[in-house]
Amino acid sequence: MFIVFEGIDRSGKTTQLELTKRYLETCRNCSVVEWSFPNRNSITGQICDRYLRREIDLDAHTIHLLFSANRWERQQELSQLLAEGNVVLCSRYSYSGIAYSKANGLPYDWLKSIDKGLIEPDLIVYLDIDPVIASRRDCYGQERYDKIDFQNKVRINYLDLFKNDPRVLMLDATQSIDKLQQEIRAKIAC
Ligand code: TMP
């Protein structure tokens, strides 16, 4: 099973991913692998990291291609992990690519075409939150995209992207950590 967690910055993805991992390992006896994109350790990821930390500037198409390459370069490994029976929990995937780069002014059809053929997740947990509320959470404002007007555009793009997708579990991320985790567990259990 391949589960992706999506949402704007500080929506709670990492917290829910880690609680889900613990639940699957201890209560469901699963072998769980935790991933996140961008993978900042690879060469493409190092450039994405420098871009996000505002050390370098890149044209919107170029940085999008690097984020996408950062996903493509791990497809074989992902395919193997899934074939071996692991559950892969992943913070951000191609949906972040579309939602953020569209907010940067790039056209949807082009964005969609670049990631076409990537392994599709079985479930997408989308944590929806008003960017103003998210901005009050710890560690907000450290990277390039941590601006409320930009995050508002990203949120609109996510909602548009996910509105008719049956694989999406859409959650109100202002709920308590426990309540959100209960909803995720209920979905995984069925
Ligand atoms: P994070 O490591 O805290 O999740 O932040 C990653 C940032 O990179 C976040 O602002 C979203 C952005 N991003 C893109 O713009 N495009 C992408 O394809 C991905 C995966 C992330």
How would you describe this structure in keywords?
190 residues, alpha/beta, binds thymidine-5'-phosphate
Chemical compounds bound to the protein: thymidine-5'-phosphate
Main structural class: alpha/beta
- Assembly type of the shown chains? single chain
Strand arrangement in the largest pleated sheet? 2-3-1-4-5
User: Uncertain segments of ≥5 residues (pLDDT<50)?
Assistant: none
Mean pLDDT: 96
- Helix run count: 9
User: Could you tell me the strand content as a percent range?
Assistant: 5-15%
Helix content: 40-55%
Shape assignment: globular
Q: Largest beta sheet, briefly?
A: 5 strands, parallel
In angstroms, what separates the terminal alpha carbons?
13 Å
List how many beta strands DSSP finds.
5
Radius of gyration: 16 Å
Q: Helix and strand succession?
A: EHEHHHEHHEHHEH
Summarize the structure in short.
This protein is an alpha/beta fold.
Describe the protein.
This protein has helices spanning 13-26, 43-52, 60-72, 75-83, 94-103, 108-114, 131-134, 148-162, 177-189, and strands spanning 2-6, 32-36, 87-91, 123-128, 168-172. With 190 residues, the chain is an alpha/beta fold. A five-stranded parallel beta sheet has the order 2-3-1-4-5, with helices on both faces. The mean pLDDT is 96. It contains nine helices and five strands, in the order E-H-E-H-H-H-E-H-H-E-H-H-E-H. Helix 1 crosses helix 9 (177-189) and helix 5 (94-103) packs across helix 8. It is 50% helix and 14% strand. Thymidine-5'-phosphate binds next to helix 5.
